[in-house]
Amino acid sequence: MEELPFVLEQVVNGVVVSAYYLLIALGLSLIFSLGGIVNLAHGAFYALGAYFAFEIQPYLGFAGALVLSPILVAAIGIVLERTMFSRFYRSDPILGLLLTFGLAMVIEQAIRIVWGAAPLPFQIPDFIRGQLFVGDMIFPYYRLAMLAVAVLAVAGTWVLLNKTSFGRVVKAGVQNPDMVAVLGISLAPIMTAVVALGIGLAALAGVLLAPISGVHPAMGAEIITAAFVVVVIGGLGSFWGVVIAAVLVGVVRGLAIHFVPAAAEASIYLLMLLVLLLRPRGLFGERIMRFE
Amino acid sequence: MIYAKGPAKGLTRRAILKGSAGAAALATIGAPAIVQAQSDVIRIGHLTPRTGFLGPLGEYGVMGVTLATEEINAAGGVLGRKIELLAEDSVNPSTASTKADRMIGRDQVIAILGEISSASGLAISQVAGREKKPFIQTGCNSDELRGKSCNRYMFHIEGANTMYINAVGDSLRREGLVKDKKWFGLTADYAYGHDLLAVSRRYAERNGADFSQNELVPTDSTDFSPFILKIRRARPDVVVSNLAGNQITNFIKQYKEYGLEYPLAGGGFDTAAAWGAGPEAFAGIWPAIWHHTLDTPSAKAFTAAFTKRWGKPPENQAWGDYLGMKILARAIEETKSTEGDAIVQHLESGAKFDVLKGREGYFRSWDHQLMNEMYSIRPKPRDKQADQWDMLLLGDPVPGPGDDLESIATSRSDSACSLG
Predict the structure, then answer these.
(1) Which of A114, A255, A265 would best serve as a mutation to test chain B binding (most B beta carbons within 10 A)?
(2) What domains are there in chain A, each with its CATH number?
(3) Nearest residue to B137 (alpha-carbon basis) of B374, B317, B294, B274
(4) Which range is the signal sequence, renumbered to this chain (chain A) (predicted)?
(5) Can you tell me the distance from the alpha carbon of B236 to that of B261, in angstroms, rounded to the nearest whole number?
(6) Scanning every residue of chain B, which has its alpha carbon at the shortest distance from the alpha carbon of A3?
(7) Do A261 and B280 make contact, defined as CB atoms within 8 angstroms?
(8) pLDDT tens-digit profile of B28-74?
(9) Does B218 touch chain A (CB under 8 A)?
């Protein structure tokens, strides 16, 4: 079949592009599964990450921005967690939704006020331009690097949650917060750290995607729906579910563009619909946490 | 379930009653002030998208119209009265329609300016037509607005898709990128994109290009890599963008990322898209309706005043909204009237206006399209760039000095509009 190499190319490209979806969805999933907060402001933190990188890059270069910007945004996250998020861990999820919805609008408007509405130029750094050719396939080095960072972020988060005492406390806290408290462990600083990590991951995604998706105030609103689709397909609260879902979404979208380009974005919603029909809790969701 | 709990506490019937009583009291206090203000100012409405993917352009429009208003008022206003500008976010067609209705009905504006989305522009024109108030649109490109959907009260400062395609096509022809060449199109999948696709296909047909390959791109796509892979497989002679807003920027950047060599061209363009892509990524040949490096006295004066007021040079959208206010003020001054029909008659009369270009422009009486010069642009060599805004090289005006301005616009026999 003559068309096969083209289809294969889209599948492989879809796997590379899944880094894009993985980066934006990972932090969102983390905050939800551990804090029970559906963070609608996730896209806004993603945008902040890109804007901070825009300011930092002239001084410290792209590598400096890649490290410093997520740390600064996570610091903002810590303040917001202490003053706002922490009040809603155990309350009706809709309150957290309202809070983060408002926060998303406030941050987007703040960006408009500080940096203006026009998109800002942000280039792929010099040292990582160019393309790798494998047979007849083409891969920009930058996208491969993005995939590597996404894999590292997933691995790091997994180790942190599964192989450290910090991770054990977090897991215990999710299962039974009262028992953790009785044992004399304060959950508050743990939750702060988890939210900061999730928000930092959003900012990391913002820095990495800035050269591809552009830096403009609505960039957060642009990706938030796709991020939710990935989390929902993977199953709310499931770590590996997010990873598998990101790859699925990347590949399905690539194939859709090959066969029915106009359905590129609709395809990921169709995928979500299909998954939810067959498995209402998502691919790997153990249970529909806190919403049941 | 998310919505399992009852209504939020605190919002009682009593609270709602109190609230509405307060609002009613405020309304009575506020009303006389509005009536009084009407007698000594001329109110003009401005609607344009300020959020969403056209928002960045809309902000430039607001800066342009604000500057024009300030200049007019500083010079004593029109007919001895100051202009009061009411500017709001048009959001989407239904909100635009509601706001236009309110501006005309409650706020008593004498005309409405602005808009970028062709769909919202159509909605505003319907309100304007019903209320007999002029609507000067500054950013809607769809041919359909000047054709099938034309309206006696709507005037078009923004160029039609046909004008844009003819302007860029002129450059492409000279480069040998049209006759017998294979074009590959990427088209934004909404009204504007489809209109532009139809117009560019017609151009290709008449000039011997093969434009059989085209992909529709959903407006919420941010990753173009699968499309770029398809372009690479198709090996076209020219890649033609019929995209809009931020998607132009994203596509240009990602096209550069993949390093494909096929020349880029586009049917619609705004300077902000090039500024957003940055000088390193920007490539291709594109049409332009105005650019701040134009070397005519009135263009230079506008660029200087705008840069002084806003700290950066005007984008072409700022030109449109600035010009809209200036033309409206001229029309009021000339007719000594703020009546909608008087203004429409004057604009239809073929009156010439300084449009901040080499030649004066005028509105065509039968479709209300502003006839004026267009340009093509391409990247400026890096060593010739004076600053971060100076990254585009402006071509010669189209049509050339000896040619009729109407030669790039839809001919009357091709148009579905028959006003006047």
Answers:
(1) A265
(2) 4-278 (1.10.3470)
(3) B317
(4) none
(5) 10
(6) B233
(7) no
(8) 444 444 444 446 899 999 999 998 778 889 999 999 999 999 999 99
(9) yes
